[in-house]
Amino acid sequence: MKYANQISEMINAFSPEPLKIEQMEQFYCSNTMEYRMSDKYSSPMEDIFDICQEKRNRNAFLLLGHKGCGKSTELNRLSEKFEKEGYFVKTIACSMDLDLFNLVYSDLFILMGESLLELAEESECSLGSGLLHGILDFWDESTETTILQEVGETSVQTEAAAGMPKIMAVLQLFAKMKADLKFNEETRKEYRKKISVRSSEWIKMLGQVAGEISQKANGKHPIIIFEDLDKLNPEDAWKVFYNYAAVLSGMPFPVIYTFPIGLSYDGRFSAMESYFITKTLPMIKIETISGQPFQAGIQVIQEIIGKRADLSLFEEGVLSRLIQYTGGSLRDLFHGINTSAKRAERRGSGTISMEDAERALEELETSLTRRIEEKDYKFLLDIYHGNKELIGDKAMLLKMLQASVVLEYNGKRWHNVHPLIARFFIEQGLAGNEDGPTRRI
Question: Is residue 140 within 8 Å of residue 146, measured between CB atoms?
Fold first, then answer.
């Protein structure tokens, strides 16, 4: 990614991918938390950082936040901070390694094992042959499909036979297993059954690997981060987290799981807080609860954009309009910028016009309105007309948060309809326009 000085460079500059650690210095905006939390000294990421450095029994976190609010970038920033303090950290991108529509808790333990072994290799740990043999035997014993044979004539077999398996050789085994988890139904069932039947044995081995890494890091535990689990549909999320909360939260090292924000309104969530430390990363607030523009939040989003592109590429008022109608959602804003920049480039313009922006907003509005039905209108209009804190129907709010048509803001928890949903209601004559026209071009 590079800074955009011209329209043709905008799409690269506003990729939906989170910032990588090596991009932080140039592109990261460090002062958003005050406008997320409405408090200069509050930060869920700093809370996690501080707790992970304490010696305490509970080391498992659920990090909640809207899709597109910047969680992944903040987690990468947190990883960078941990690494500077001498911790070994591994982030697992579940959407890349697993099928999110067919995921069970045991899959997470397999990826956790691979990540710890990768950290052991990076930290130059000398894991004992007994432990490495134990890991190989765990996966090869009583498995109908012999995994070691399927890997082929590799150093796994050679070194195991010689009595000296190495970490890299064992990682070849995990590469095969990871592919099976995503694509091979029959073998996937075998792996899951093995974890289910012998979970305590596997967790013990994970703890031993983590202990060796900790010794290399002067007593600092390795830290595992699971990304993309907030993208699970609600029932799948409950099957993973609610049914296996004690197991997932029982690791002897810190584990951070992302989690769907809407599920915090489900009655089952209070039980989760007995096992996990829960933290929420809110949207950047661009409007007050009374409906007035929140200029400090708007300015910090402009600063985020200014770190990636020359602001003169936007004609007068265009960036403000895109920010206004994306509600603090960086994902929606970046999508709007990319779509409008592409249109500007096609018409041979060096700047994004208001018409380019409006076309992009129309596309996003269409996507959002497809997620709701007429029977949802009453609930959404009730929020639009001022019911931004009381929750009359938790199930409906959960559904609307999941669809990103309702957005939640800051430390004092309140919510609002997405600005483009509000605009849709005004256009349909379903809501009064208290703030002036929202005319399309």
Answer: yes
With respect to residue 11, please indicate whether it lies within any of the assigned structural domains. Answer: no
Same domain flag for 179 and 246: yes
pLDDT of residue 184: 85
- In our burial notation (b when 16+ CB lie closer than 10 A, e otherwise), range 82-107 reads beeeebbbbbbebeebbeeeebbbbb
Kindly indicate the confidence band of residue 418, based on its pLDDT and cuts at 50, 70 and 90: very high
Residue 267 is predicted with a pLDDT of 86
User: Which DSSP letter does residue 108 get?
Assistant: H
Residue 432 is predicted with a pLDDT of: 66
Give residue 408's pLDDT.
87
Opening angle at CA 406, ends 400 and 407, nearest 5: 135
* Domain annotation covers residue 364: yes
Residue span of the structural domain in which 223 resides: 33-281
Q: What is the pLDDT of residue 164?
A: 47
Backbone angles phi, psi at 90, to 5 degrees: -135, 130
Q: What percentage of the chain reaches a pLDDT higher than 90?
A: 68
Q: How far is CA 76 from CA 22, 79, 145, 386, in A?
A: 10, 5, 37, 36
Domain boundary among 281, 314, 334: 281
Both 276 and 318 in a single domain? no
Overall number of domains in the chain:
2
| Mean pLDDT along residues 297-311 | 97
In the block, which residue shows the tokens 């289910």? Answer: 196
pLDDT at residue 404, rounded to an integer: 92
Contacts for 249 with CB less than 8 Å, ≥ 6 apart: 58, 59, 60, 255, 275, 276
From residue 297, give the alpha-carbon distance in Å to each of 35, 223, 301, 386. Answer: 6, 32, 6, 21
Q: Compare 433 and 124 and report the one with higher pLDDT.
A: 124
User: Among the three residues 281, 308, 336, which one is the final residue of a domain in this structure?
Assistant: 281
Q: Please indicate, yes or no, whether residues 147 and 51 belong to a single structural domain of this protein.
A: yes
Looking at the structure, do residues 332 and 247 belong to the same domain, yes or no? no
Model pTM score: 0.89
